Amino acid sequence: MPDLIEKNAPAQAVASAEPKPEKPRSLGLDAWHDLRKRPVFIISAALIVLLIAFAIAPSLFTSVDPRAGDLRLHYLTKPNYLHFFQADWFGYDGQGRSIYARMIYGARASVVVGICVTAGVTVLGGLAGMIAGYYGGWVDTIISRVTDMFFGIPLLLGALVVLNAFTTRTVWSVVFALVALGWTQMTRVMRGSVITVKQADYVTAARALGAGTARIMFKHILPNAIAPVIVVATIALGGYIATEATLSFLGIGLQDPTISWGIDINSAQKVIRTAPFALFFPAGMLSVTVLAFIMLGDAVRDALDPKLR
Amino acid sequence: MTTALEKTTAAKDRLVPGTPLLEVRDLHVEFKTRDGVAKAVNGVNYSVAAGETLAVLGESGSGKSVTAQTIMGILDMPPGRVTAGEILFRGQDMLKMSNEQRRKIRGRKIAMIFQDALSSLNPVLSVGYQLGEMFRVHEGASRKEAKAKAIELMDRVRIPAAAQRVNDFPHQFSGGMRQRIMIAMALALEPDLIIADEPTTALDVTVQAQVMDLLAELQAEYHMGLILITHDLGVVADVADKIAVMYAGRIVETAPVHELYARPAHPYTKGLLRSIPRLDQKGEELYAIKGLPPNLYKVPAGCAFNPRCDVATDLCRTEIPALHQVTDRDGAELAGRKSACHLWKETLHG
Amino acid sequence: MAEPILEVRDLVKHYPLTQGILFKKQVGAVKAVDGVSFTLDKGETLGIVGESGCGKSTLAKVLMNLERATAGQVLYKGEDISRLSGPALKAVRRNIQMVFQDPYTSLNPRMTVGDIIGEPFEIHPEVAPKGDRRRAVQDLLDVVGLNPEYINRYPHQFSGGQRQRIGIARGLALKPEIIICDEPVSALDVSVQAQVINLLEKLQTEFELSYMFIAHDLSIVRHISDRVGVMYLGKLVEIGTDAEIYDHATHPYTQALLSAVPVPDPTGREGRERIILSGDIPSPANPPSGCRFRTRCWKAEERCSTEVPLLAVPEVLSGGARHDSACHFAAEREVAAAS
């Protein structure tokens, strides 16, 4: 018998001697390598980094107090486009506050709402979707029906109703309303993804080894099912920011003294003829932000899509 | 039925027997991907005559399917690219033809059968409609005529109760029946050549035998050329007239079927044949070709098979072997036998 | 040999067919495995052959306790494991492991080879103490003929044959006594199949493993198996030693299966006598009454549609033909030299 094993040895040595040419790296790293080469990703990521910097440390970008109004400055003071980073760069709004400063400070509400809502719906919806997809049966039936019910409610209309119940509305009440109404979107994506992954042989293999539910869910299913959720979440993030602005514009979202682009757009719309710049800057900022997240989502989808690799 | 049959056979007989129907000459195909350039086909030569069955034998990555797709003109370009070579159909180079000319040949003169019949059929159209479509599009037949012809075709490939099943949808048929429908579709316009890419790999053994038998029978009946692409040495032994063995995008050996199995002239062929479990080897270790199939992005220098070869010499590691004419011990040429091995003599006679 | 390590008694697995979305009601059942009995001895290889839909893969899943048996028993060393759950089931899993068909889907693409092969140790920490695990994983890689330095690589960096070796290493990690191989080489290239078969045989001797080897490739099954069982539509139709099955088959289905297999040798192919079965395998949701093979059998008579043939030794036969066969008209086929 040792003879047999010896004879076998050279064949096996060769079997292992020829490594594939690539360097060892995970699929996540692979996606990163891919992303780095995409201009769309670089532009959108740069924009988002800048936006987050606005949100975290607005005072780095302007020393002007966005809430300090001087009625003498009012709309009629035209912007002075050569005064870079100064109070009157983009002019003043109806209460004589610096539009530039408000544009910078407004990022915070948008970023906080966007990120918190996305995190909330991803965790809540993702968990529900995972449970529905993993367990199937009546659990799935119940979760799916609830999801369907929520899907029937238009996000904006639903948020209007929920937010009306609050007497004072902060960033957190907006986050609450959007998470409560938006989680089902992630549930659907996650459920579908989990059902596909659940059938993979490596999940069966883990069960055959005696792995527990938690290990199977978080070690085997989640890492393989998460990609479409990340893509949808990234794209949805821009949408949540737009929704927050819309709600604030309608007067049902954030309220003064919180600074939000939506509020500024609302107050600027009345003077669109005399002071279009007052509308242009917060609206432009909002569009660029939403676009940046949607572009990021697209780039991430392309990088994670296994069909393209 | 018999008269129709006689007529078709007579028409086909005008071809001088033995002249190649299709000849592939020095074909090179590359794929450009983000990992580099994969040389999928590196100078393939083969030919097939009317009434002849050529089996192209190879493993995954040997280039056997890419060659077939190039012949059919269904290769995805890009990423694929034909860098050199000719594909002569009745003496005319198809690679130089206009798209319009090629389309006329495709389906009408050369038809293809794929491994996966379910994904090759349109799931929302009845099989009768899909079969009849060939006649409506190519021959301008009326709806009624087309349906009648579809039933006749289904009869021909022995689908039971064809007249009742003509309006059924692909998913209502079993795997074997679907593959018969694919064969019927390929036969519809009585092509001169059929390319069958792993036609029975997805089927069960007992059904596989039915389908292979049918294919061989129809081929004889219509006097067609058949290129059978497969990795299965058993299927090849059953139906092929001659064999081309491919490895890493090259033909490594061609031979008439009996001679190839009896006396292979290339170490790869020899290794494949030896690695099949045999009765007298029970309980012994199987012969195994060592190593891995080649990486097309990094084909080894010299003979692509050299890292896995038991008899490789320094010459094999540096120089790509030409496809040598194989001769017997006295130096007399063996008809149809070629081997791309520097040591073919030792392999054949040793 | 003698003592059976695994004994299967009248194993049944039905999948209910239901209708309705909210209120499901059962309208029938797919009888994937329908009364299968056999034994597996220590150190033995039992081959199971059959075509798709015959229930061989379901059988593997039920034996692995990945699917609950509808009825019947699976006795591991005398203890029924088919009803176990929780820690008791987990303990049994250490002794019965599986190798999967498709090496491309059976390895988690997001885990390194080290994590994949090391996972059994994380699930069963008692097998290898924490400090020794890396060493143990590298030993396993070595045992299956892979470079131990590949421990940090990901599955997509390996070829099919190498991946299957990784799958085998994972199956070996817990030092099981039984390994169920479900089509372990059918997804591999021809030139690599022999390597993996040799590896499995080497490991069997080295670790005294018992194999249940499920495949549709009859020549490979014959090569590796001591005994062979043939399945058709959820039932074993014939079982015996490899010589009994391959040289003295008495069940018509086995005979047809054997004659349909393409022989990799063109000699005498024109004269070869083949049984070409008509039709397809019936649906396991609605199998024929009596003998399930009767709709495709050339020997079928009235009796076959009413009386289910039992798997038993036909009394009238002698020699190699004296082995279990589930046919009313079991007989060896007069073969005109089938080679």
TrEMBL record, chain A:
TM ranges = 40-62, 111-135, 155-181, 221-242, 277-300
The membrane topology of this protein is:
Multi-pass membrane protein
**Which Pfam family, just one, is annotated for this protein?**
BPD_transp_1
InterPro entries, alphabetically? BP-dependent_transpt_permease, MetI-like, MetI-like_sf, OppC_N
Cellular component GO terms, alphabetical: plasma membrane
**One biological process term in Gene Ontology:** transmembrane transport
ABC transmembrane type-1 domain location, by residue?
107-297
Q: Which UniProt keywords apply?
A: Cell membrane, Membrane, Transmembrane, Transmembrane helix, Transport
Localization per record: Cell membrane
| Ribosomal protein is among the record's keywords | no
Under SUPFAM superfamilies, the record lists: MetI-like
Domain of life of the source: Bacteria
Chain positions covered by the region annotation Disordered: 1-25
Q: Which family does it belong to?
A: Belongs to the binding-protein-dependent transport system permease family.
| UniProt-listed PANTHER family | ABC TRANSPORTER PERMEASE PROTEIN (PTHR43386:SF6), OLIGOPEPTIDE TRANSPORT SYSTEM PERMEASE PROTEIN APPC (PTHR43386)
What is the protein name for this chain?
Peptide ABC transporter permease
From TrEMBL, chain B:
Question: What Gene3D superfamilies has UniProt attached to this entry?
Answer: P-loop containing nucleotide triphosphate hydrolases
SUPFAM superfamilies referenced in this protein's UniProt entry, alphabetically: P-loop containing nucleoside triphosphate hydrolases
Protein's cellular compartments: Cell membrane
* UniProt keyword Protease, yes or no: no
Q: Does the keyword Transport apply?
A: yes
Outline the extent of the ABC transporter domain.
Answer: 24-273
Pfam families with a match to the protein in the record: ABC_tran, oligo_HPY
Membrane topology term: Peripheral membrane protein
MF terms from GO for this chain are: ATP binding; ATP hydrolysis activity
Q: Which InterPro entries match?
A: AAA+_ATPase, ABC_Ni/Peptide_Import, ABC_transporter-like_ATP-bd, ABC_transporter-like_CS, Oligopep_ABC_C, P-loop_NTPase
For this UniProt record, the keywords arranged alphabetically read as follows:
ATP-binding, Cell membrane, Membrane, Nucleotide-binding, Transport
What GO CC terms are in its UniProt record? Answer: plasma membrane
Q: What is its main location?
A: membrane
Q: Which GO terms describe its biological process?
A: peptide transport
Q: Which PANTHER family match?
A: DIPEPTIDE TRANSPORT ATP-BINDING PROTEIN DPPD, OLIGOPEPTIDE TRANSPORT ATP-BINDING PROTEIN APPD
Protein family per UniProt: Belongs to the ABC transporter superfamily.
Recorded protein name is Peptide ABC transporter ATP-binding protein
Taxonomy, top ranks, is:
Bacteria, Bacillati, Actinomycetota, Actinomycetes, Kitasatosporales
From TrEMBL, chain C:
Recite the UniProt keywords alphabetically: ATP-binding, Nucleotide-binding, Transport
Q: Which Gene3D superfamilies match?
A: P-loop containing nucleotide triphosphate hydrolases (3.40.50.300)
**InterPro entries referenced in this protein's UniProt entry, alphabetically:** AAA+_ATPase, ABC_transp_ATP-bind, ABC_transporter-like_ATP-bd, ABC_transporter-like_CS, Oligopep_ABC_C, P-loop_NTPase
Domain of life (superkingdom): Bacteria
A Pfam family per the record: ABC_tran
Q: What does the record list as GO biological process? A: peptide transport; transmembrane transport
GO MF annotation list: ATP binding; ATP hydrolysis activity
* Record-annotated ABC transporter domain positions: 6-258
Family annotation (PROSITE patterns): ABC_TRANSPORTER_1, ABC_TRANSPORTER_2
Record NCBIfam families: oligo_HPY, PRK11308.1
Note the PANTHER family from the entry: D,D-DIPEPTIDE TRANSPORT ATP-BINDING PROTEIN DDPF-RELATED (PTHR43776:SF7), TRANSPORT ATP-BINDING PROTEIN (PTHR43776)
Protein family according to the UniProt entry:
Belongs to the ABC transporter superfamily.
The name on file for this protein is Peptide ABC transporter ATP-binding protein
Q: What is the organism of origin for this protein?
A: Kitasatospora cheerisanensis KCTC 2395
